[in-house]
Amino acid sequence: MTTPLSPAAGTHVELAPGRAPAGFVSRLLAQPGPAVSAVFLACVLAMALVAPFIPGLDPNEVSLSNVLEGPSWGHWLGYDNIGRDIVSRLVFASRVSLTAAAVAMLVALAIGLPLGLVSGYFAGRLDLALSRVFDALIAFPPLVLAIVVVAVLRPGIVPAMIAIGIINAPTFYRVVRSAALDLRSETYIEAARVAGASSTRIMLRHVLPNIRAVLLVQIALTMSSAIIVEASLSFIGLGVQLPQASWGSMLRQATSYMGSAPLTFVLSPIVTIVAVVLAFNTLSDGLRGAFGRRDTR
Amino acid sequence: MITFIVRRAATGLLVALMVSLAVFALAPLAGEDPSQSGAGAGQVLRLSKEEVDASRRRLGLDRPFFVRYGDWLSNAVQGNLGTSLFRGQKVSDAIADALPVTASIAALALVLTVSIAVPLGVFAAVYPASVVSRGILAATAIGIASPSFAVGLLLVQVVSLELGWLPAVGFKPLGSGLAPWLKSILLPSAALAIPAAAALARFARAAMLEVLQRDYVRTAIGKGLPRSTVIWKHALKNALVPVVTVLGLEIRILLGGSVAVEAVFALPGLGSLALKSILEGDYPMLLGIVMIAVTVVVVVNMLVDMSYALLNPKIRVL
């Protein structure tokens, strides 16, 4: 593959090797956009975590007399097609969507990180072979690849998580590989080698800590891509299955009632998805900025 | 150039072969064993052992794996992708029916993507400090964060339901006239194009910013050429090189996104067909669709690499 540019915005993050400078968090929060995003994501996460303990927040309580009713004082976003409170549905769906995205990200990390590390550190033939495999994988439209994987494993949230993990693995691989490749000829790595440290030790103790900047940026980007793909899969019915709900499957439900339902029914999952994805993207920009070189894209 | 094309084609062919082998091996695991569920009879029956065996023989499932694969492959190369397990329809016919729908929205989406992204990106690069440019940056950030199917739902809500300007569902073939065809694909294409254009506009802006700083641009302006000529002719030509590459990547994302967008607009395209065959466990159909998708992807990747070589002769990919 002679693709001269990285496949997606910001997959090849060039950062000066070096550990996170002191005051990293304060430098991250000094940027208004990323600071707001971090606070927003923390709120969403906290909401998702404490949801089961909040009285009155029941995603499955059906109130048939209020079917498709618009927003009211006690129910800010109104009711869905079988009379369930949309706020409750949304909060509980965020548990599913965020978990799915996080697990998918971890799957991608678990595949891409070790292989990228080994590939970049040892270079040579192994690198060539592994890179070919990931090139082939990345040549696929992400959603098409996810659909094929889900087709093989049968529709469901677990297959969807695996599928999303697989389609995101190549970007982790590439990012880690190129960072490790840059590091391998650094003097302190050579010094460790001469001192007799084993390759495993060098990779874990010397290379890995020095690529955590690129890793963090990539993790934030992968979260946003995973949320979008999970929403898409659940929307077409290949992801989350009933009675569970995610943001995507809420939209699937809402589409059948678009003419008659209150606007909040279809709008609230969309706004949530866009806001969370935007926050993860902004956060990754902020991380990049806090670590060093600012990406102009 | 010819060696380059041949080599790319060979790699593409290899990828297509690998994918077909993988899907061929794995796809049957997806559905129930078609011989068990009495596929072909169109209903689920309790079958005796003899009937299952007969149906396995009829579907050719009793033969060894590589014999079946070789058989399928030699047929596929000749354009025969087999028969659907459920309606006895030929896979190639079903794909031929669905392909124009997906091709229509993808083509229009591509046109929309470029015609939205390039002007916006160039403007944001030429006037980086203006309020409009900041607006463009904010809008592209939101656009990148929006899944295409969600954009589609919003378009249906506003343009179809509230304003009543365009139909919300259905596809009219080009044969029924240009205007009905355009009307039926405008919203789905826009849904695909908006997130893609947002990403592309950012790349166009970055590329343009970089090119505008080069010496030859300063020289051109310095010798008195009109600013617009320098921007749109001299600078844009070079800025387009990375943009075309990104566009190639966007095409693949468009292809994937069209599955969900077709679901929003109830369009009988390849995505809908794929979805149906997954849910039914119709793997000859699924295999056929995947192969078409792989072929398209391989060809698109090749075209992107070639256009890259053409746009910038300095890059020797020969």
Short characterization:
Chain A is mostly helical and 297 residues long. Chain A has helices at 24-29, 32-50, 86-122, 124-138, 142-153, 157-183, 187-194, 199-210, 212-235, 247-255, 263-291. Helix content of chain B is 75%, strand content 0%.
What distinguishing features does this structure have?
heterodimer, A: 297 residues, mainly alpha, MetI-like fold, 0% strand, disordered N terminus, B: 318 residues, 11 helices
Notes on the structure:
The complex is a heterodimer of chains A (about 300) and B (about 325). With about 300 residues, chain A is mostly helical. Chain A has one domain (about 80-290): MetI-like (MetI-like fold, Orthogonal Bundle), CATH 1.10.3720.10. Helix content of chain A is about 65%, strand content about 0%. The longest helix of chain A has about 35 residues, at about 85-120. Chain A is elongated. By secondary structure, chain B is mainly alpha-helical. Chain B has a domain at about 100-280: MetI-like (MetI-like fold). In chain B, helix 9 runs parallel beside helix 10 (about 270-280) and helix 9 packs antiparallel against helix 11. The longest helix of chain B is centred in the C-terminal third of the chain and has 38 residues, at about 225-265. The interface between A and B is large, with 51 and 55 residues.
What is the CATH architecture descriptor of chain A?
Answer: Orthogonal Bundle
CATH architecture of the domain at 100-280 in chain B: Orthogonal Bundle
Largest beta sheet of chain B, briefly? Answer: none
Structural class of chain B: mainly alpha
The CATH superfamily of the domain at 100-280 in chain B is known as MetI-like
Please state the overall shape of chain A, judged from the principal axes of the Cα atoms.
Answer: elongated
Radius of gyration of CA atoms of chain A, rounded to a whole number: 22 Å
Portion of residues within helices of chain A: 55-70%
Return Rg of chain B in Å: 24 Å
**Could you list the spans of chain B in which at least 5 consecutive residues all have pLDDT below 50?**
37-44
Proportion of residues in β-strands of chain B: under 5%
Spans of chain A of at least 5 consecutive residues whose pLDDT stays below 50 are 1-15
CATH classification, class level of chain A: Mainly Alpha
CATH class of the domain at 100-280 in chain B: Mainly Alpha
Question: What's the order of the H and E elements of chain B?
Answer: HHHHHHHHHHH
Mean of residue pLDDT values of chain B = 80
What general form of chain B does the structure show? Answer: globular
Helical content class of chain B = over 70%
Q: Hey, roughly how much beta strand do the residues of chain A contain?
A: under 5%
